[in-house]
């Protein structure tokens, strides 16, 4: 790794789960971790694509099916887990898609990006020995808060606003998870990261042809590689950082070397974080297990 701000430790003997590891940021994150000796479980919806991704990675890997849009799949994944889990990387996500519902009836971006990972974390947390890293986005700044009276966007849906809310939820989740871990004197850390403007498959899926073309062109012009975009996740997962740390690119245009990232006041709202936790527990039927 050429970036001088992230020096990966030897991860031999540790296991990491990376959700959405079949492409983009997840694949690069898995590649970095496996390259330093970690056994990496690629938690993916499409295991055929996961197997293809695993063949690209030098190191010990395993592919397991996980569909974050289906809480029964999340429960099955967690129920099959055995042994310690050094790193849980909540990376998978969907971005600015047309309005849809998960299998359990949640607005798809809130359901996949937040609720699926919320449930997975709670169900696996008793196994975690190191860190829970959740991938957010600089676009969390596009929204002012979580609409607790309408978290599933029954009215006023727009793809990017829904995405921004789901990414704000990721940061509030990290904030409250860290508070709960500290309350029980757990050594586990909850951290977050965002990739900046990275050239991945997330962009250009609004099904609005002109908007999608513009996004793809912009991504080709200013987007940094997925490998560079994964560095903030690696920093949040492996470096000496405090709980609730938020890593991101430090360059002017959401690019460059990773470091501490700015977040909005809404993302630091402890009351909202607790309200979101309560809402998420009720929605998923999962709770903090420690």
Walk me through this protein's architecture.
It is a single chain. With 290 residues, the protein is α/β, with parallel strands linked by helices. It has a single domain, classed as NAD(P)-binding Rossmann-like Domain (Rossmann fold, 3-Layer(aba) Sandwich). 39% of the residues lie in helices and 14% in strands. The protein has 9 helices and 8 strands. The protein has helices at residues 24-35, 47-54, 71-79, 108-124, 159-183, 209-222, 226-229, 231-238, 270-284, and strands at residues 15-19, 39-44, 61-65, 85-90, 128-135, 189-193, 246-249, 258-260. An 8-stranded mixed β-sheet has the order 3-2-1-4-5-6-7-8, with helices on both faces. α4 (108-124) runs parallel beside α5 (159-183) and α4 (108-124) crosses α9 (270-284). The longest helix has 25 residues, at 159-183. The mean pLDDT is 91.
List keywords for this structure.
8 strands; alpha/beta; 9 helices; single chain; 290 residues; eight-stranded mixed β-sheet; Rossmann fold; globular; 39% helix
Helix content: 25-40%
- Rounded Rg: 17 Å
The count of strands amounts to 8
SS field, number of helical segments: 9
Alpha-carbon distance between the two ends: 36 Å
CATH architecture heading: 3-Layer(aba) Sandwich
Strand content: 5-15%
CATH superfamily: NAD(P)-binding Rossmann-like Domain
Say what the CATH topology is.
Answer: Rossmann fold
For the biggest sheet, the summary is: 8 strands, mixed
Q: In the CATH hierarchy, what is the class?
A: Alpha Beta
Q: What structural class do the secondary elements suggest?
A: alpha/beta
Question: N-to-C SSE series?
Answer: EHEHEHEHEHEHHHEEH
Query: Within the largest sheet, what's the order of strands?
Result: 3-2-1-4-5-6-7-8
Total domain units: 1
Uncertain segments = none
Mean pLDDT: 91
Shape: globular
